[in-house]
Write a structure and sequence with these properties.
It is a single chain. The chain starts with a helix and ends in a 9-residue tail after the last helix. Strands 1-3-2 form a three-stranded antiparallel sheet, covered by helices on one side. Strands 5-4-6 form a three-stranded parallel sheet, with helices on one face. By secondary structure, the chain is mainly alpha-helical. It is built from eleven helices and six strands. It folds into three domains: 3-92, Gyrase A, domain 2 (2-Layer Sandwich), CATH 3.30.1360.70; 122-211, no CATH class; 227-336, Isoleucyl-tRNA Synthetase, Domain 1 (Orthogonal Bundle), CATH 1.10.730. 46% of the residues lie in helices and 9% in strands. α8 (227-248) packs across α10 (283-297).
């Protein structure tokens, strides 16, 4: 279940409560769900009960319980818990591999995108005129837009030309003085431009903003010790097995896949990771998640294609579908970081 689907499910529960006479309120046009804050639990939470409490003339925890009763047992939701002053927290079911894979392949590189931040006005971001800050600004804006936000990304001064031409940074101009969220990561210790766009952006985005980035040629090596290489290699291999399967005359078909719990869970977590990266202005969360997806995918790949005279089976088709879905998630995530996902390495 994506955040957008969960939002619609909660909205439907509110509408049912109003129709049944348990809540006397105007049904809101939309409900915002986001990763739970301090004191919360599960995968997502919403404050809709707090918003409806005053017009309903009831305490927020009571409103939350009314809504909770209509969400228990809903498809895709395994548990609903009310915490604090009336926050409704959700734990989602780990999607069955076949259903999850179909969802990813249906949405393509936009899997995990949503509208939880739509309709909340313009998010104004401002970065210092420093290379890591502007790369973070660019990545944060991309991730926020993936969740439906309208973003104005401004820089405190004119960009160095190469930050745009080499690193692919885009800004909307100088801040106009409106309230904004400052992007202030620890500055880069040296010029990342010699690394080129992909390695430089990874070097600046993969560490948490409060950590000092490492700017060296280690980001360029084609070895497993380089996380960026593992992510792009896993993506390229996933595309290669799809091509090779086509040459062998069979295609992907989602189904049960044995012993791939870590990969299935990582793919199911992708929408939550994107929402968290947006709400916390933390593209490093997405970067580290992509490493987890790649590390879970790589052991699957040798078993995707038939060996020798072996005929393609339902298991091969299901593994192929899972590998294709994982490659899709890797490509979409890298794109949000402004990094290329080549089909060949």
């Amino acid at each position: 279940m994506t955040p957008a689907e969960l939002s619609r499910t909660v909205l439907y529960a509110v509408r049912r409560a109003v129709e049944d006479g348990e809540l006397a309120v105007a049904v809101p046009e939309r409900v915002v769900v986001a990763p739970p804050g301090p004191g919360g639990c599960g995968d997502y939470a919403t404050n809709v009960a707090l918003q409806l409490a005053r017009p309903a003339g009831q305490p927020a925890p009571r409103v939350a319980e009314v809504i909770r009763a209509r969400l228990l047992g809903a498809g895709g939701i395994s548990d609903v818990v009310v915490t604090g002053p009336g926050f409704i927290n959700f734990r989602l079911r780990s999607g069955a591999p076949a259903g999850l894979v179909r969802e990813i392949l249906r949405h393509g590189s936009r899997y995990g995108h949503g509208d939880s931040l739509a309709g909340q006005g313009v998010v104004r971001l401002r970065a210092a005129n420093e290379v890591r800050a502007v790369v973070h600004l660019d990545a944060v804006a991309r991730v926020l837009r993936s969740q439906g936000a309208l973003v104005h990304a401004g820089c405190a001064g004119p960009l160095v030309a190469e930050w745009g031409s080499v690193l692919g940074v885009r800004v909307d101009g100088v801040p106009d003085g409106s309230p904004d969220a400052g992007i202030r990561p620890v500055p880069a210790p040296s010029d990342p431009l010699p690394l080129g766009r992909d390695a430089a952006r990874w070097a600046l985005l993969h560490p948490a903003p409060h950590d000092r980035p490492r700017i060296d040629d280690g980001h360029l090596v084609q070895r497993e010790s380089n996380p960026l290489f593992r992510v792009r290699y896993a993506h390229a291999r996933s595309r290669a097995v799809v091509r090779n399967a086509a040459d062998l005359g069979f295609g992907a078909e989602p189904g049960a896949v044995e012993a791939q719990a870590a990969l299935v869970q990582a793919l199911a977590d992708h929408p939550r990771v994107l929402a968290g990266a947006a709400s916390h202005r933390a593209p490093d969360r997405l970067a580290r998640h992509l490493v987890s997806v790649a590390d879970a995918l790589l052991p699957l790949l040798p078993a995707v294609l038939p060996l020798g005279d072996e005929k393609p089976s339902a298991a091969h088709r299901a593994r192929l579908a899972l590998a294709e879905a994982a490659g899709t998630v890797l490509a979409g995530g890298l794109s949000l970081l402004g990094i290329d996902a080549p089909d060949h390495l």
